[in-house]
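Input/output pair, single chain:
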Amino acid sequence: MRNTLAIILLFITYAFNATAGEVTADDTLAKEQNTKFLIFPFFLKSPETNWGFGFATAYFFKAKKDDKDIRTSDVNLVSLYTLNKQLLVVLGSTVYFPQEKYIFRWQSSYSYYPDKFWGIGNSTEKSAEEDYSIKQFYFNPQFLMRVYKKFYFGLSAEFQQINDFTYTSGGVFDQQDVVGRNGGSTSGLGFLLTLDSRNNAYSPSKGGFVEFNLTRFGKLFQSDFDFTTYSLELKKFYHIGVNRVLAAQLYGKINTGEPPVRNLAMIGGSEMMRGFYKGRYADKDMFTSQVELRQYLFWRIGVVAFAGAGQVSDNVNQVRWDRFHYSYGGGLRIMVQEKEKLNLRIDYGIAEGGSGVYVILKEAF
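Output:
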């Protein structure tokens, strides 16, 4: 554990030093083209969804036309239906105000989501798998203000309503007395500290990103559950050759109190530990890392190779080197929006006891 913390502290120090300088936003919407509207059908695939079909609408714009250093803002709407009978509607936005003095981020969604659960812990058995389903409404607005160069302070609100939580009685949910298995409301307020010098929001080739987030959930905010979430994310992007980028990420999440099941830290998914079903391992705390080598080839085509490691635990003191889970894989990139470097990614992830194919818009990180 001491070694793990030392590595994290070294990474924080390096990331801060590497991102503290000014970075010109050179991978953004052309100056003479202040707005861009896209609408297109798409498909995706992941272990959690099977094949899914839907449409995406995206509006790209500059908050100030003649500000060459400001990154491109966007508003996007995604609707999706999958062969697992999942329905998902997501509205999101990131707005960079003039000179990037302020940043506004918004994420909201409605979903009907049949899912899987293996219980709580870092070593749950594959045979413990149970099906369950929920209806969920979620929104999370964030407002950040620049306090020094690329350093921001922000406020965040988070609300989640879970209804129609359906599972098999007497199974792992009841055996482990899992908090939140009857649904309910989760609401809280928090703050963020962010250092962001990425030159592009979708596929950075240089710069870095460091963000600490603390959110308090409790009765004061009309929440049915009382807990606090701390998270720390660090990302760094290195241009290491002609059309080649090395990307690295560290992520940690700690919950204190009694978080409900949908707020637990979960290994897996399309963005972290690809190859694992999201939630294959779940607990209060999580520590993960991944690296990805990205190589542009020709036209709008590129390839990547990636690897990741992570574990969950009930307490940060239980983190051990020999308890990490690992995944690796590779993928293809097809640039669907050249100016903004917005990629369709097709990844194949391999993990312990399984694998997964992911066909999704935007990079994993």
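The helical segments are 2-19, 172-175. The chain has two helices and 18 strands.
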